[in-house]
Design goal:
Elements lengths: L2 H7 L5 E5 L19 H8 L3 E4 L11 H4 L7 E7 L7 H10 L6 E6 L13 H12 L6 E7 L8 H4 L4 E5 L9 H11 L4 E7 L11 H16 L5 E5 L9 H11 L3
Parallel strand pairs: 1-2, 1-8, 2-3, 3-4, 4-5, 5-6, 6-7, 7-8
Helix pairs in contact: 8-9
């Protein structure tokens, strides 16, 4: 089997679900109702083997060990050290770095909402350097991931991205998906040596409305093609806490993922 065939046959292994505690989005973003689906349940329901778990509005609270126990059987976990809205603290980061020793399926840590629209960042370059040194002391390979939005590409983000192993690339408003190929090419030029993962919203959070089906289909089909071409290392679908709401784009995505088993 040649390299391309191997990559194509294992494409589902490169799929992730973005996860928060159950009910995290209740009453927000124009969603029809609250969710009761946990991160582990969301991964199983969507049919993906990997979970990115991100702290949202202060939840889960420390210690994180009880939340990690249901994820022990997940293939790979990436856990946030910067949460929603750039929320982070030294105690949280230290705790995450500590639990890496007891949860070997945590393959990375992620900085969510790291960049703001005014150009500020959740952590300094010096703080990121410290985190990278700590990661090398775990005795195994643990990557540093970061979130980058299309509408922030004009900011001076390169020095920070170059300190990360994997860049997850997101499009906040669905109309901006019309320029997805153009914007992703800009990311490739910006950090050609960094791994990239395509973030796929299954709800238009930027406009608080349903994702148009043609745009959901577009980002999924582009992502699958870019995996086969070796341009990205995977795709992540957001989020676990909308998977039980009967949303059309979520149901379609579940069927689409099943076709790639």
């Amino acid at each position: 089997m040649d390299k391309q065939s191997k990559r194509t046959s294992s494409i589902r292994d490169l799929f992730w679900i973005w996860a928060h505690e159950a009910g995290s989005y209740e009453g927000a973003f124009g969603l029809p109702r609250g969710s009761r689906m946990t991160p582990a349940e969301g991964a199983a329901w969507l049919g993906v083997p990997n979970v990115i778990m991100v702290r949202y509005s202060g939840k889960p609270v420390l210690p994180f060990n009880p939340c990690l126990e249901p994820l022990r059987e997940v293939q790979n976990v990436v856990w946030s050290i910067v949460g929603m809205g750039g929320e982070t603290s030294e105690s949280e980061r230290e705790h995450v770095l500590d639990i890496l020793r007891t949860f070997p399926n945590i393959r990375g840590v992620i900085m969510d909402d790291f960049f703001t629209s005014d150009g500020s960042t959740a952590l300094s370059i010096e703080q990121i350097g410290t985190i990278r040194r700590r990661l090398t002391q775990t005795g195994r390979s643990v990557e540093l991931w970061v979130v980058l939005y299309a509408h922030l590409l004009s900011l001076p983000v390169r020095p920070y991205l170059e300190l990360c192993d994997t860049v997850t690339f997101w499009t906040w408003k669905q109309e901006e998906l019309d320029r997805l190929e153009e914007n992703f090419a800009a990311v490739e030029r910006l950090v050609p040596q960094r791994k990239k993962v395509l973030g796929c919203y299954m709800w238009d959070f930027g406009n608080s409305r349903a994702m148009a089906m043609e745009r959901m289909q577009k980002q999924c089909e582009l992502g699958a093609r870019w995996i086969k071409e070796g341009r990205i290392e995977g795709m992540v679908f957001l989020a676990s806490c909308i998977c039980d709401l009967g949303i059309e784009a979520v149901e379609w995505t579940r069927r689409w993922i099943a076709e790639h088993k």
